[in-house]
Amino acid sequence: MLFGKLLPREGNFFEMFNQHADRIVEAARAFSQLVANYNDPHLREQYNRDVDNAERAADRVTHDVNRMIHQTFITPIDRDQIHTLINTMDDVADLIQDSAETMALYDVRQVNEEIRRFAENSGLPELDVFCECERVDCLDRLSAQIDDYEAVRRFPTHFVVRPAHLGAEDRIIQETPEYVVIEKVGPDAAVAISQDPRRASIRRLT
Asked: Are both 41 and 93 inside the same structural domain?
């Protein structure tokens, strides 16, 4: 037993690289599903958790590789190369997790609420809000009178969107040169009501 401990150790680094790569693939697939199901808050949260779980598993592999570097007498490639490779792979997993977390927490209506509050406190009659369409990559800005936007916000199912960004099930309530006020109906309306930041604020106060 003592003699065996004195023998040089050879860590199976390539197997651990493959394990880490598998976790990256898991995280990427979960992130892809998060994007595809972005409008469903429950699925969005579920796939964000899946990304987190894959990233944590990748972290454990990274830790094992770095520990093995110091315990292995003969390494298949240079130690610095092993260290650089596994940490670069870990950066990829971290980036996927950061992107998923940002998307999971991103709520255009919440951002617009903060813009409206700032404009109101500053005494500004007009504000630039983000388009509240369903497009994940949309960052269009829309100019609206603060009173007009407040009239829209009285209804949690009403949204301001770019005219070209209408969803298939959206019902047009009002048209202006700058934006269209639409109403969500059916299941989309239920989601809009449950995710309304004003309703969430009321729940926190009660």
From this structure: yes
Q: Do residue 145 and residue 189 come from a single domain? A: yes
Q: How many domains does the chain have?
A: 2
Pair (98, 112) in one structural domain: no
Q: Which residue has the tokens 């998060």?
A: 34
Residue 111: how many CB atoms within 10 A of its CB? 14
Q: Tell me the whole-structure pTM to 2 decimals.
A: 0.57
Residue 127 contacts residue 115 (beta carbons within 8 Å): yes
Residue-wise pLDDT for 17-62, tens only, equals 999 999 999 999 998 888 777 767 788 889 999 999 999 999 999 9
Cα(188)–Cα(40) distance, rounded to whole angstroms? 9
Residue pair 9/71 in contact (Cβ under 8 Å)? The answer is yes
Cα–Cα distance, 72 to 133 (Å, whole number)? 55
